[in-house]
Amino acid sequence: MMLVFPRRWRAAKIGQLSAGAAKSAAALAVFTFAAFPAFGQSSPAPGHLQSGDQVIYARSTNLEGQTTTTVGPAAVSTSGQMVNAPVAANADRQAVTFTGFDLDVHLRPAEQYIAVRAVVTLRNDGAVPLARIPLQISSSLNWEQIRVAGRDAAYTVATLNSDADHTGQLHEAAVPLPKPLAPGATLPLDVTYSGKIAPNAQRLTAIGTPDAVALRSDWDGIGVEFTGLRGFGNVVWYPAASIPALLGDGAQLFDEIGRQQLRTEGAPFRLRLTVEFPQDETPTVALVNGHPVPLAVTGGSPDIPGIATADYQTPTLGFESPSLFVAVRKPEKVTNATLWTVPADEAAVPAWNSAAATVTPFLQGWLGQQPRSELTILDLPDPQDAPFESGALLVTAVRQAAPEQLDGVMAHALTRAWMDSPRAWLGEGLADFMGTLWIEKEDGRGKALESLEASRAALAIAEPSSPGESAGQPLAQAYSPIYYRTKAAYVFWMLRDLVGDAALSSAFRAYNPAQDRILSNGASSQPDEFENLVKRASPGKNLDWFFADWVDADKGLPDLTISKVYPEPAEAGSTLVGVTVANSGYAAAEVPVTVQTALTSVTQRILIPAHGEITQRILIQGAPTKVMANDGGVPETQASIHVTTLGNPAASSSSQDSMP
């Protein structure tokens, strides 16, 4: 069995900018109330899917998400009126920001059934009043009741094509308001919905992915031994309002997932869970948004199901899609982590413990003696199922693997437990950075930078060619994985080269996630705390330019060239080499410049301003043969290593630069 290092697994999803690449990414990696129907009834409530119902599926959609799907018998009866085309427009969907979730969730795993009552609070972040509210759930679920200001709303329901859900479709309710919601105003809605959630790979098979491969990626579903609901982007089991996005259309879907996570960041979240389970199938672990939640269990009998309940509450969501896992697993303690495994995988636990013990001293040296939370690893049902991460939770197949594979997995996953930052670029980006540092430790700096280089081209395409053309995505507000993972990892590499290991480690150790949950209008503020920590740890260093160009704003990538080299003889057989490096990009960069002879080399760091050039004079013993600028540590638009060969001017060449 081949374990996939999480950074590479995710990179397969985030950089694809063609339909074929997106297809490959999806295939490889790819996430008790009176209003409820009576849970004990054996027949479905009116409006629920019957086994003989026919569902007609269509993939065509326009820019507003309108669909030509024929409404079949399975979609006829909800409390809302079914319509053939969406009533809401993208402007309505973009305006809605959820600012609070209060969910009561009832599961009947033996029937793959979920029923939810949710009180959601939303805000109009648009420029004009909202006359209606669009609410979306998975197409496998049905709206039953929506109440506004204590009164039932007469809403319509349309089937919307969107790959934010594994079925490839959403049920979107358009809820008319008695009074338009003014810009900036908030409104609570009381909603109920229910249905069955089984593994479904419709969105992947629709673009040609083989069934068996697709189901290893889209494994979300409700079951007795394992329930996994990864949330928006995999299965929309809680209300959302999103722009339709399809796989095969570049990074559109992954960007929309990030936008949703950014828009709900900071919202209070509560979930009360009730699970009915058959005798001898008592769930042992429940995880909400990546956090273990204690289960209170009342045993059942052959005729009466047992009941397990849990209550989870957090004052602020992080940059995440709310997720829910319930499973029958056995806990196994390892270094700084708990593995929840099936019996067949218990033999692999010592190998995972060894990996955790191996990487722990490395993480302690960089991040501090103790993680801020314990890592939870949940064993997936199938060894080929795609892994999933949410904060200090790793959902993956716990199988035997080579130590170097497990070490890399644990270096990345345990970083999330150490940092636990609410900011995507500090959490996700740091995990990728520490993963590459582990590669450096094991295989050298060159191999580590090669792992970053694998995603650089995708980052260069995503970046605006000019700050005037697009605001891009400053890291604090980034919603695309290529920014908050790949670019953030590069930012940490550059900071390391600028201030040194000790200063950067000091900032990591001093960082307090609880103090960094400063939120404004649902989005993170500028990353002042971490920036100040780095500056305090490196007095005398001017870092204002770096944070201005690389963190607080998105100015794209630098574009460097070695424009001139002037070797001049000096005393005692040495040579004074003048090296001019030009930057045609909008972001400044400090890079190493190295002059080599047959026997030695000298390296100095040079700061090249945006749209500028700098000449550095380097004294070296002997005759210079080669000049190199950048070593891959600073990402560039075209290339990140520049080499000019000296000695025969007519033959001076480089794979990136050539002498004039």
Which key terms come to mind for this protein?
26% helix; five-stranded mixed β-sheet; disordered N terminus; Neutral Protease, domain 2; 14 helices; Immunoglobulin-like; eight-stranded mixed β-sheet; alpha+beta; 660 residues; 30 strands; globular
Unreliable residue runs: 1-78, 519-527, 649-660
Beta strands, count: 30
Radius of gyration: 27 Å
Shape: globular
* CATH uppermost class of the domain at 424-550: Mainly Alpha
Major beta-sheet overview: 8 strands, mixed
Tally of helical segments: 14
Provide mean pLDDT, rounded: 85
What share of residues are in beta strands?
25-35%
* Structural class by secondary-structure content: alpha+beta
Helix content, binned percent: 25-40%
Strand order, main sheet: write it out: 6-5-9-3-2-11-15-14
| Name given to the CATH architecture of the domain at 424-550 | Orthogonal Bundle
Q: What's the end-to-end separation, in Å?
A: 52 Å
CATH fold description of the domain at 424-550 = Neutral Protease, domain 2
What would a concise description of this structure say?
The protein is of the alpha+beta class and 660 residues long. Helix 10 packs across helix 11 (481-499) and helix 12 crosses helix 13 (528-537).
